[in-house]
Structures
1.
Amino acid sequence: SRGLGDVQQETGVKRENWPITYFSPGDKYMFRTIGKNKLEIYSCDNAFSLLHTQEYTAIDKIAISPLQNRLIFASFAQEHVQGYEHTQAFIQFQEFTGEKLTDLQKKNLNKADQVDAIWSPDGLNCFVWSQSAFDNTGKSYYGEHQLHLFNISNKLFKQIPTYEGPIHDLIWNPNSQDFIVISGFMPSGTVFFDKNLNAKYEFGKNHRNVIKWSNLSRFALIAGFGNLAGDIDIWDTFLTKKVGTCKANSTASCSWSPDSRRFVTAVLTPRLRVDNELKIWKHNGQLLNRVDFGKTELYEVGWVPSKITFKDRAASPPPKEEVKSAQEKPKRLFVMPGNSASLSAMIDAEKKSQTSGGKAITNFDLANQAKESQQRKVPGAKMPEPKKKRVRKKKTDQGEEDDKEDP
């Protein structure tokens, strides 16, 4: 049989298909993709003996469920077009019993130039995120995105409702009972779902594209990184209440501490080779420390794992200064009529309304808002009124034609 040394001699391995080796929970088995359509399963004993070989029409990657008592995995392939040959994208869920493979579910995917499978921490549910590079309708520069959920228990494969536009990020709650999805054109919508696909809450329409959930499940960090301004909102997901905000420009890395009371943001190389730094924040957005790496380059930042069992705690109350400033009424500035500053004030008010907070939501509301999002609105500008149609009446006895406006 083929040995592990043959991995280095494999041909046709693309960067997007790496890695080609995967290990099961507990490192009892090893999976290895061979070429474009073959999967091998080895036993992780001293000899790495080959147990099973499976051939597919095509296979790019696999994703193994973190379940401990059952070995379930998803194998998937994106669309491949070469000349007149076209390979359908698909995802297939199978269970390995130690001797043979058992099929659980297989679904073909349309418009899937890229496919990702993301398992819940308990290993019972799996996101299937498919996207295409082009949008045939011409509505989106980012192509078309679809999100499905597969459940092992009932073997159902359902589509998750999202806003029209790209899917920016999604994440499972560490307790596997809920998840959050950011989708839609900017300002994007961030929606809180339970595992039964019921939309529970919307965290406002903002310029956000990243979600980080704390280890103890209470706090969720929703931010706009990358080419966005770096605004961060921290939410208590137990109470669906915003507990803090802050801003970290040019952030390339962000993670929660093991006790879920702090998080770190960092400006890293190679995203930026100057002004590298890390900042440590309290869970309510208060800056605790800043370390400047301006004279060198910072490549990675991470928390040291802890063996301590931490207990969940509610958010700390804000400092008295913040409470006092929040209670003060904002001062109104006098603006001359016709001054351009009035337009600026309208735009600022529009931005504040986007970040004012969240609201309870249902799947029905989500579908309606997705339709409304198709109407692109300029901040500070009034929506145009619908045009009135002119209806021409038949000629009267006097031989004249009457026109009237259709209300």
2.
Amino acid sequence: MKCSEKENASSYFALEEGKVKMKVCLKFHLYSSYPPCGDATIFPISKHNSHNILSEDVGTPVPENSTPVIEKQAHKISSNNIEAPHDKTQTENNTETLEPCPKKMKLSEDTNRTGAKCVEGAQIDPKRDGLEYHTVSVLRTKPGRGDRTLSLSCSDKILKWNQIGMQGSLLSIILSEPVTLSSVIIGSECFNLESCKRAFFTRYPDNNKHLEIHNYTQAEFVDQRHVDKVPCPDSSLFVAGSQSFREAYVTGLRQGWSKKKLDNPKSWSSVCQRKLAARTQDIMKM
């Protein structure tokens, strides 16, 4: 609203009854190099594509040459040495009571797993073998190696965005209509269309708001998630326009500021909740 005259924002936005309305030509598309954590990553897989199995703990791919858990357990049983009997009677008793050690078992079907945990109070994962490992269509919290977070999984966030928009509480005061996604593109071979549909809209009772979902794998994202890669804690922000600026962050904090000085407003990010709320108040006063 403030910079519409200088930057030709009227090409995309218009004032209508004191609120900002986006024009029909403006659409939003989401690209993800990997299926969003949570419900979208839960789907059946066969032993032929078992390399797409996700780790139970943090949702990272299991290497192709790894041994499934059920095979490891069987191998452990078969490799245990049973003490040799001392007499004939004991041999006969052992023959009657002991069963042969099972051979390695292979599951013909398994479940592609997610590290996202079910929210408290919801139906939990049974964690049985094969297709009964996960419970589908339930809300989950984001996976991670540290303390458990209260933030919902990415699949649940996209479900919410599809129903009420992704504009958030502050922009909803200014915008006349919700901001919704037009499509989602998953750039990964680990992809299942039915699980994405379930995660993004069909599991919601009023599922008349559908999304276009595409799978594109010809050009792989060079920095996509991999077992040998660790996410970098550094990030940067660049804002274009007449008052463009850049900021660098380390673990979410502005570079050069320690945790002991977070009470200083100069240490706050320009897009932190506090500054965004203040910016919204300024706009509302106009």
3.
Amino acid sequence: MDSTKYNVLIEKRLLTTFAQNPLKETCKLIPFDDNTQEIDHQYAEKIDGILGVIGLPLVTKCIREESFLNKMPNVKVVISLGAGTDHINLPLLRKKGIRIATTGKINSGVTAEHGFMLLMASARNLKQAMVAAASPESFVTFRLNNNGIRLLGSTLGIIGLGSVGYFVAEKAAAFKMNILYHNRTRRSQEDENKVQAKYCETIEKLLSQSDFVMLCVPLTDHTKYLIGAKELKLMKPSTVLINISRGDVVDQDALVKALQAGAIGGAALDVTTPEPLPADHPLLHMPNVIVTPHYAGATKEVLQELLSTGVTNLLAGLKGNPMPNELECPHSLATCSSQLVQ
């Protein structure tokens, strides 16, 4: 039996998530928290693997900065608890001979649930309704003047019908919405028929016909600022834009201008640039905009599954075995990320 002890850099909060810690027998765990910026040099040279949720300053440095990785010459494996790869400097990790794995599409279902929750909240003006409910002056008038949009018969345009997008389509179909979609690769006739989705060859056609537009694409060189001033002008004045992908898929300055001008009906965003937004950012103070803290893919149950899958990948990688969710990205970030929406 292999008795080797591996040194693993791990987020402190993950240690409290384990029901039973499967790493304690084989790994020496080096915890860090939100405020950790540097690794003590006595540990840095010994670290074999990194396990974490992307977003913390230390994790970002570990997967993006060569000068930081140079301090950890023995790192063999990096495990990202999530599906996206836009935050990872993949060419750098390949150059260093470091293997990388994500946790696949485990959180696709709950991400879609969150997206549909944002759609429903926007349709019924939930943010404004909560304010009205606490105000005697607007309690009655709000009911008469802000009834929202009925989902039955309205049109949802989904950009990116991968695993998340298709889960969204299933929910929209249950509400008898009309579903349009645009995808890099058209889905099969069987897939389309199951949710009664109609394919749009161009994004422009989808935008002009939709009451709601939901973004479900990975961030790549091709999808950065996919929605900008030109695309926003194509939408109806009542259209709501919903983003559950990445903040930079939308030109945020153009979105603010469109909202301020009344060019679109509203927005619901689980992702922004930056995260979090400054407290005085206009998007946080518009009555027709909902912003949530990039937690669409996070529930208690999913976190346990992500962690379990992450640990499985980590231990396999440290032992030199195949990792179930290892990324093989021979060309570019765009090529790698596009694998996630096949």
